[in-house]
Amino acid sequence: MKNILILGAGTAGSMMANKLSRVLDKKEWKITVVDPASTHYYQPGFLFIPFGKYSRKDVVKPTEKLLPRSVELIKSEVETLFPGENKVVLKDGKSLAYDYLIIATGARLAPEETTGLLGPLWQKDIFEFYTLEGALALADRLKNFNGGKLVMSIVDMPFKCPVAPIEFVCLADDYFKKRGIRDKVEIYYVTPLSGAFTKPIAARMLNQVMQERNIHIISDFYIEHIDNENKKLVSYDEREVPFDLLTIVPLNKGADFVGRSKIGDELNFIPVDKHTLQMPQYPNIFVLGDAAAIPTSKAGSVAHFAGEILFENILHIIEGKAPAEKFDGHSNCYIEVGQGKASLIDFNYDTEPLPGTYPVAGIGPFKLLDVTRINHWGKLAFRWIYWYFLVKGRALPVSAHMSMKGKKVVS
Predict the structure, then answer these.
(1) Continuous H helices in 180-288
(2) What share of the chain is helix, strand, coil (3-state, %, to 5)?
(3) Which residues is 407 bridged to in the sheet?
(4) Contact at 8 Å (CB) between 375 and 358?
(5) Per-residue pLDDT for 124 more than 80?
(6) Can you tell me whether residue 287 is helix, strand or coil?
(7) Residue range 111-251 in CATH 3.50.50.60
(8) Which region, left, alpha or beta, applies to residue 107 given φ > 0 means left and ψ of -120 to 50 means alpha?
(9) pTM for the model
(10) Helix axes 164-179, 200-212, angle to 10 degrees
(11) Rg of the chain, C-alpha, whole Å
């Protein structure tokens, strides 16, 4: 019997386990998933928790309930990978052999990497919303925040869901308006980028959205340390940003075993061929989702689209053929802007977000680089799609490859 080993039971890992289990002969193939967590999180939902729109029950399900019965789930951390030996060693010393390995261990927060971040103000006036615990703690703090400087800051790129901080400040603007205290709150968006987003056309649109909401953007700001005593962000070029309440995206890193195994970059993300998702030196190892060091967003849509390509390619490789498909870096993201509206961006390695309609040219129903109510409903509907289709590996009526149909080329 041959073995497919999947490290990680998040979005990417669960999706691949479900897809492969449907088509591979169970008498010939064994699929094993390794993940220490008993709970699977719908991470895009964390954004809504601080504002009372979602609760814990909306974003959690038992890990094992999302995997097929034929798949073995081992609840353990990975200690080391020995790629030359086709072997993974777990924390308890148990060794797992594989014929094909899919690494889908995601990205983790590393607040310990920033001086002062885990200081006296942590979880008091400094918060993150990229974990369930952080989002719930921030929700409690926002209820009692009655005015002052609210700062949303980003330590460094890359990080999970790069539009989430933009969504946060827009939803905060809406939240404080509904509480009748928006005039008492100054909102700042502090980023190491030169603008709101990495792609110029989308950045212009998002800059305008934030300007209309009186959200101040402080760009090219690289945090050197956080001064807890004086409540300030301090940059490497000695600029300072004071805050009363700080929401931050800590440095993101890959899994620790990647560093121990010496297969990753300086942040423990794993370099792979950006089209096949294979490690060049180990063609039976594939990296999917946030764990991969590829030049596109660390977003659920990337895991989805790349997973569709990887699924087809693994089946070809198993049959002794060359990979048949190439991942083009396709990513799309709904962007909540408050007031019951959202925008949508769709792009890939070579094409930045453009205006137009999605997924059907000329019809939509969703509008690209436009702010509409239907986009907002698309964002909310995605939670149901995620639980019952995407993570279950079921087909969705959108192409894994980005299409130019319905898009308008602008300069």
Answers:
(1) 200-212, 256-261
(2) 30, 30, 40
(3) 356
(4) no
(5) yes
(6) strand
(7) yes
(8) beta
(9) 0.96
(10) 10
(11) 21
Which one-letter DSSP state was computed for residue 216?
A: E
- 185/177 Cα distance (integer angstroms): 10
Instruction: State the DSSP H helix or E strand holding residue 244, giving kind and residue range, or none if neither.
Output: none
Of 207, 375, 298, 337, give the one whose Cα is nearest residue 287.
298
What is the per-residue pLDDT across 240-299, written as a single tens digit (0 to 9) for each? 999 999 999 999 999 999 999 999 999 999 999 999 999 999 999 999 999 999 999 999
One-letter amino acid of 260: R
Half-sphere exposure of 18 (CA within 13 A, CB side): 24
Question: Which residues make Cβ contacts (< 8 Å) with residue 185, sequence separation at least 6?
Answer: 145, 147, 148, 149, 150, 172, 176
* Domain extents in the chain: 2-108+253-318, 111-251, 331-390
What angle is formed at CA 271 by the lines to CA 267 and CA 274, rounded to 5 degrees? Answer: 130
Q: The tokens of 32 are what?
A: 């094993």
* Residue 48 vs residues 114, 116, 180, 329, 336: alpha-carbon distances, Å: 26, 27, 19, 27, 10
| Amino acid at the residue 104 | A
Which amino acid does the sequence have at 34?
Answer: V
SS3 342: strand
Q: Is 357 within 8 Å of 366 (Cβ atoms)?
A: yes
Polymer length of the chain: 411
Closest listed residue to residue 310, CA positions, set 40, 2, 17: 17
Same fold, 2-108+253-318 and 111-251: yes
Question: In whole angstroms, what separates CA 314 from the centre of its chain?
Answer: 24
Q: For residue 12, give the H/E element and its range.
A: helix 11-23
Amino acid (one-letter) located at 316? H
Tell me the pairing of strands 356-360 and 364-368: antiparallel
pLDDT digits (tens, 9 = 90+) for 127-154: 999 999 999 999 999 999 999 999 999 9
List the structure tokens of 46.
């964390």
2-108+253-318: CATH number:
3.50.50.60
Contact 217, 191 (CB under 8 A): yes
Which helix (H) or strand (E) element contains residue 190?
strand 185-190
Q: Is 197 helix (H, G, I), strand (E, B) or coil?
A: coil
Both structure tokens of 136: 């719930």
Integer Cα distance of 304 and 301 in angstroms: 5
Per the prediction, the chain carries an average pLDDT of 97
Place of tokens 């079921």: 394
